[in-house]
Structure formats: C-alpha cells, structure tokens
C-alpha cells in the first residue's frame, strides 16, 4: 500500500509557514529579550550609581505592598515555567491551567504594584508641591539678589546648586518612574501571555511545537529578575 502524507504541516511559526519562518520568529524574540535586558540593565546601573547620592526624603520607606507584589511576580514566573514542562509532557489540561494562572497572577501583580505607587503618590504629592514651592521661592530670591547686584554670577550659581542638591525631588521622581516603567513592561507581557494562552486553548501547542510558550516563560522570568534587582536596590538605599 502506498504511503500518503495528507496531514497538514506543523505550525512552525506564530501564524503559519515554514521552518525558516520559525527560525526568524525565534531570532526576533531573542533579539527583543536581549535588547530589553540591556535596556533594564543599563537603567538599573544608572539608578544604582545615582540614587544613593541624591537627597532622600526623611519620611520615605518601601511600601509594604511591594513585598506582596514581589511574591506574586515570583509565583507567576514559576507557573509560566511550569507550563513549558507540562506541554512537553502533553498534559494539556494542566498546561492551560498554568498559563491562565500565570496570567491571573500577572494581572494581580500590576494591580498591587499600581496600588502601591498610588499610595506613594498620595502620601508624597502634597509634600512634592510644598518642596517645589520652596525651591521656586529660593530661586526667585537668588534671581532678585543677582539683579540687585548683591550676588556675583559665581555666587548665584553656587547657591542654585546648593538648592537643587538639598532637594529630594529627583530621588522620589526617579523612584516612581523606575517602578512605574516596570509595571508597564509587565502589562505588556500580559498581552503576549494572553495571545499564547488563546492559542493554547485552540490546541496549537504540543510536545513538538511550543516555542511561544517557552518565550513566554523566558519573558516572565526575565521580568521577575528585573523586579527582584529593582526591589533589592530599593531595600539597600
């Protein structure tokens, strides 16, 4: 009996196509992860070098909700990694549950992280306004003294530098921006995870093809590492 091959070819790409298409997709995702890694590594290095030398608000402390969000992020990364193991073993039901669980925890992480940032802003925004007003008054005083001829340009410059050196605004603003940026990248990871989960429920992944599932796990674990480094930096400041 002659052998026939009527089965549809394996879905080698994120949509459909050939093995070379799959290679290009993998290379593109690797470049994305590596470039994002360089971006966060350079950002953390700059923050680690600059923040310790900036004036820190006397009443600043790490929000307790960030401890909770850290545990949630680690759990989400673990579930995303477990999904890879399960799909390789063809445990489809448990595999899909792990993807859904990782997505759910990722959403909770973003909510808790946003809540923590909201608490920080609610507590410090009124103080930011007071500090900005104080800085503006001092700068206006320097300008008036300079125009009156009571200060030389060098003395005025030294006074301005002293005003900004004593202000905790750059520390607080940099901190909020750093954490907020990580939340945005985590939210972006949720979109990719949702796409992978949708395809999983369509039955598109098995032990032969699970590349998007693997990259989903890589991304989640990468974001976990970035957050653990960021959180560790906050605790050391």
What would you say this structure looks like, in words?
The protein has 237 residues and is mainly α. Helix content is 78%, strand content 0%. It is built from six helices and no strands. Helix 2 (65-88) runs antiparallel to helix 3, helix 3 (92-147) runs antiparallel to helix 5 and helix 5 (169-201) runs antiparallel to helix 6 (211-236). The protein starts with 18 loop residues before the first helix and ends with a helix. Residues 1-17 have low confidence and may be disordered.
Please give a quick description of this structure:
The chain is mostly helical and 237 residues long.
Tags for this model:
disordered N terminus, 237 residues, mainly alpha
Unreliable segments of 5+ consecutive residues: 1-17
First-residue to last-residue Cα separation = 75 Å
Number of helices: 6
Gyration radius, in Å = 25 Å
Arithmetic mean of pLDDT: 76
Question: How much helicity do the residues have?
Answer: over 70%
Helix and strand pattern: HHHHHH
């Amino acid at each position: 009996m002659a052998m026939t091959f009527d089965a549809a070819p394996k879905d080698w790409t994120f949509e459909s196509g050939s093995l070379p298409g799959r290679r290009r997709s993998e290379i593109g995702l690797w470049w994305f992860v590596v470039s994002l890694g360089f971006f966060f590594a350079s950002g953390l290095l700059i923050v680690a070098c600059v923040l310790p030398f900036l004036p820190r608000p006397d009443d600043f402390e790490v929000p307790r909700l960030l401890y909770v969000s850290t545990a949630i992020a680690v759990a989400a990364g673990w579930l995303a990694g477990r999904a890879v193991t399960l799909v390789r073993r063809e445990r489809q039901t448990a595999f899909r549950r792990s993807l859904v669980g990782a997505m759910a925890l990722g959403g909770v992480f973003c909510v808790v992280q946003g809540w923590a940032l909201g608490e920080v802003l609610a507590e410090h925004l009124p103080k930011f306004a007071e500090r900005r007003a104080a800085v503006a008054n001092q700068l206006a005083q320097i300008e008036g003294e300079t125009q009156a001829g009571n200060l030389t340009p060098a003395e005025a410059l030294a006074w301005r530098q002293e005003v900004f050196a004593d202000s905790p605004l750059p520390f607080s603003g940099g901190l909020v921006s750093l954490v907020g940026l990580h939340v945005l990248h985590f939210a972006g990871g949720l979109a990719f995870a949702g796409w992978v989960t949708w395809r999983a429920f369509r039955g598109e992944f098995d032990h032969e093809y699970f590349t998007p599932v693997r990259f989903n796990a890589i991304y989640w674990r990468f974001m976990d590492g970035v957050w653990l480094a960021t959180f560790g930096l906050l605790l050391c400041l």
